[in-house]
Write a structure and sequence with these properties.
The protein is mostly helical. The protein has a domain at 39-105. The protein has helices at residues 2-14, 23-53, 61-101. The protein starts with a helix and ends with a helix.
Length: 105
């Protein structure tokens, strides 16, 4: 039991030593996220165009239904990735603006 307390105290002492994030970290993270959003938007549109031009051509209805579902899933996930990066970029930009408005204690 005493050994656990020393491990916990040792871990608690290391946490305050981490450097605090500043506005430069927020704006670089925001710009990186927005650039990834733009990049994945173009990839997502290329994926959507590819799947719309290459429709599944199977004779079996079940195989065609599964293939269509997988195509829809891939397109949806690619646009979800694009939205996620845009949302993270927007959030980091808001934190960047907020870092100038809030006083530090």
């Amino acid at each position: 039991m005493n050994n656990k307390k020393t491990l916990i105290n040792r871990d608690e002492n290391e946490i305050p030593n981490t450097p605090e994030k500043g506005p430069l970290s927020f704006i670089t993270g925001s710009l990186t996220s927005f650039l990834l959003c733009i990049f994945f938007y173009f990839i997502s549109t290329k994926i959507a165009i590819y799947f719309s031009l290459h429709k599944p051509s199977n004779t079996s209805e079940i195989v065609q239904s599964i293939s269509s579902s997988i195509n829809t899933l891939i397109i949806g996930l690619s646009f979800l990735l694009t939205f996620s990066f845009a949302f993270i970029g927007l959030g980091l930009f808001i934190v960047f603006i907020r870092s100038f408005l809030v006083k530090k204690d």
